[in-house]
Amino acid sequence: MARREITQYFDDIDGTPLTDDQVHTVRFSVDGSDYIMDLSEDNATRFLELLAPYVKAAQPAPAARKSRTRATGGAKRLNSRRIRQWAQEQNIEVSDRGTIPKHIIEAYNEAHSS
């Protein structure tokens, strides 16, 4: 029996269902605590507009030293979603979150190479 898991995203502010293409993940920090929200484009824009005067008045914090560099942001998230979706379509078991196993990424790249 084949099993297919579907991930459904919801706007963290108003609960609106979102497709993969509609999700805007917003990360921010306040007083040393890090936060993350999945928002619609409208709510993400509103949030950033509300913060704009505070960001304009603030000074950038010194960059923290990191032991390694990691790719982050929209491009990586979008690629991960595409890989997960492809793996599920191929009946390859893959988790909805976390690191995608190297063999799945390699299989995806091989299937999509020109």
TrEMBL record:
The keyword DNA-binding applies. Keywords: DNA-binding. Residues 79-111 form the Lsr2 DNA-binding domain. InterPro entries: E3-bd_dom_sf (IPR036625), Lsr2-like_dimerization (IPR042261), Lsr2_dim_dom (IPR024412), Lsr2_DNA-bd (IPR055370). Gene3D superfamilies: E3-binding domain, Lsr2, dimerization domain. Residues 1-60 form the Lsr2 dimerization domain. GO terms for molecular function: acyltransferase activity; DNA binding. This is Lsr2.
